[in-house]
Amino acid sequence: MEFKRVVITGLGTVNPLGNSVQEYWEGLKNGVSGAARITRMNVDLHKTQFACELKDFDPTLYVEKKEVRKNDPYALYAYAAAQQAIEDSGLDLEVLDKDRAGVIWGAGIGGLQTFYEDVKAYNIERPKFNPYFIPKMIANIAGGLLSIRYGFRGPNFTTVSACASASHAMIDAFNYIRMGKADLFITGGSEAAINEAGLAGFNSMRAISTRNDDPATASRPFDKDRDGFVMGEGSGALIFEEYEHAKARGAKIYAEFVGGGMSADAYHMTAPDPEGKGAALVMKWALEDAGIKPEDIDYINVHGTSTPLGDIAEPKAIQACFGDHAYKLSISSTKSMTGHLLGAAGAIEAIASILAMQHGIIPPTINHFTDDPEIDPKLDFTFNEAKEREVNYALSNTFGFGGHNASVILKKY
After folding, report:
1. What is the topology classification, in CATH, of domain 260-412?
2. According to its record, what are the GO cellular component terms (predicted)?
3. In terms of CB atoms within 10 Å, which of 141, 212, 345, 365 comes out highest?
4. What is the pLDDT of residues 71-130, one digit of tens each?
């Protein structure tokens, strides 16, 4: 079977560095931290009192005011990023064959804010829930809402694989298009877990940083003194399109999506395999799927969450997969700036990789102060300052609780 080519023709995002792709890129290349004390709730009693929140996000730019209360924040973020991506793509929705256009979305949790608020309000004297409780809360609703908004009747589903969710969504969209089962997808992911339940839940696991005295430097991937990830929120959306379909309508093309890998650690509920076996395997399979050699990759946007165990396992996996070429790669963790967007991480990090290719700039891994003796210092993590480099192929990693691993490979167009 001869596979069709898949290109990316539209981008959209709302995330802790900005409410547009341009604002996001300015923050990335300038090494801006999106972390600060949480503003939307009282956090005095929480071990962690900061996160990477959205700033100045106005949902009424994307939905009518009366619709805001009918949607969980994670769905509102999806609406925003998808609308930006559709507008950016220049698609004429009046002539598009909507039977061959679909939505494959990623969400690690879904409507956690809705779930928390309604369960908190329930009691013996008030034994009922809001009628929107179920549709606001379920993890697949954002993808369904996007198909309803744009009338896309093609494949529509949601991937739920923790922090790998958006990457799995993109790989599925890629496969449907290259096998000829669709012409176009809105794909990506959204997450909105910065609330009492999300904060306390991750705190109880000791998964997130407690550096309350210095939030801006709390996300410290690969630094000796890292103490956990920083929660982020938002959404990233990409328009995946069959190459000939895009070319026929004169679309601008950002990049080509050329391969994806999927694997499992099969090791532990939350901890990575200490030798990075699943991570090495997923990168190997992504390279095989793309039909390229390890030496072809110029840049890896790593999972790099700033956790004690994960930040040791991933460099080991890179060395196992890439051999000597590992020392010629540019590597960076943009989570040092955005925090960890959980199920949406793969989407905004794919966008970061595309922008790095487009501009010839590797975004930095900020907040590096002290080398970790357990991490090879000869690897180039692009610490603290962006640098210029031509990027022809970029690989982006996402690894989720449960041992879910996904890697995607993008090619400069």
Report:
1. Peroxisomal Thiolase; Chain A, domain 1 (3.40.47)
2. cytosol
3. 345
4. 999 999 999 999 999 999 999 999 999 999 999 999 999 999 999 999 998 876 677 888
